[in-house]
Amino acid sequence: MALLELRKVGARYPGSRNLALSDISLRLGPEQLVVVLGPSGSGKTTLLNLIAGFALPASGQITLNGAPVSGPGADRGVVFQQDALLPWQTVLENAAFGLALRGVPRAEREEQARRQLALVGLEGFEHRNVWQLSGGQKQRVGIARALTADPSILLLDEPFGALDAFIREQAQELLLNVWQKSEKPIFLITHEIEEAVFLATDLIILGGAPGRIVERLTLPFGRRYAAGEPVRQVKSAPDFIAAREHVLQQVFQAHHA
Amino acid sequence: MSSNAASKALSSAEALEIASPTNRDHASGEERADWKTRLLSGSGFTTLVSVITLATVLFVWWAVTALGYIDALFLPAPQDILSRIARLVTTGYMDATLQQHLAASLWRIGLAMFAAVLLAVPTGIAIGRSRIARGIFDPLIELYRPVPPLAYLPLIVIWFGIGELSKVLLIYLAIFAPIAIATASGVRNVDPTRIRAAQSLGATQWQLLRHVIIPSALPDILTGLRIGLGVGWSTLVAAELVAATLGLGFMVQSASQFLATDVVVSGILVIALIAFVLETGLRHLQRKLTPWQGQSH
Lengths: 257, 297
Description:
The complex is a heterodimer of chains A (257) and B (297). Chain A is an alpha/beta fold and 257 residues long. Helices cover 40% and strands 23% of the residues of chain A. Chain A has 2 domains: 4-75 and 156-256, Rossmann fold (3-Layer(aba) Sandwich); 84-150. With 297 residues, chain B is mainly alpha-helical. Chain B folds into 2 domains: 2-74, no CATH class; 90-289, MetI-like fold (Orthogonal Bundle). Helices cover 82% and strands 0% of the residues of chain B. The radius of gyration of chain B is 26 Å and the shape is flat. The two termini of chain B are 38 Å apart. Chains A and B meet through β6, α3 and α5 of A and α10 and α11 of B. Chain B: Belongs to the binding-protein-dependent transport system permease family.
């Protein structure tokens, strides 16, 4: 059973007649981590905005739990590339913000927020100011905030794009842990090939103009890490390298097509 | 060449020292030892130059009056101004003490400021959020804003007389535009990702305004308040010069008619001091309310 389903979705760039995406069909079920990979301008962000409800499709249909998506809502938690935290609130208040909007009593929402902050490794940071955190820590607060609101699905828009290579790798591992423990399906877009191959259970490569799906792959690496295999062992395994090179070739071909 | 490399090595060693938190604790002991370097570098140095400049101006003022180069009618000596201020506080001028003049002025600007904040902030939010409100208010504000308040003071006097209402209304009009404009631009410039994030957490339109847009625009609103207060203060003094029986502007104006230059200079100094205190106070408030401003994101 698919939680999220896109049927022949097409979209235009805002304020333009040009198509950004055409004929996108995909399904996202529980326990899946779908990664959409594509070069800049392939319509990745447009696709995420459609699912989040920030924009509406020009054609086709998007449904979540069977109901059509018509605007943003708390059933889809979104984590952005640049942190969208509220600097006048503490880490804990930020994480609890979604529940505060719903009128959940303070003690209860803070307990939930503390649990999600612990899940992203920010125990002890509850009363810090968010503007004093590092880039990686801010993104983790963003993930905890999205989780605390208890959405059916987590959408991540190049969440680690602004982080340096070392922090980025740690963040990827953290995301797999969160995915496993929270049992939320994840939809993530990125232009980083190794990141995509490592994280995805289902990899979708976008290419061309307007963007369309050029290849779909089912990959085992994220699950292998989640099952306990060390990260460097996964990333240096021959089949990982082969998959990475294959994807790289596809992306290049799609880019020059 | 070699000294250049040495200074580079030194500066990177300093950088390491600054970065290490354990060394920071020792720094208080060393602080006294190198106060000279601290004084002669960075903002401390600028402050030093400012203090020297003010002291020089004061000294020249004192010197030209003490040596009799300038008649007291044109420029009284600084010590005479001090004693005049003391007498203004105790016996006053024109049937009122300095405090009473000051209180009258502060009351007028306070009332105008209160009314302006109450009306200009919501107007600014409306302009920033709604195309219709923008279409209505933009031309009205842009039409009257560039006109100097003193140019429409006569009309206000014809309509509302020379009482308190006219003065407060004049100041209110002068303050309204900068606050409304600053609020509107603050509201328009709210990071769209912040708004989208709140929408994805289920925020309603009202919650978006209350919890995201207004706090995000607060730094701009406070800047508008600061500009408004500056404009309001100059308008107030000008309005009191024209028609009043109490207030700092009135005190200066009537003293000039009797050639009481010491009262005039005293009044100007107090006006400058109050403007400085108001500005500093608001800056402090801004830092306190929005400490994240100017921090790296």
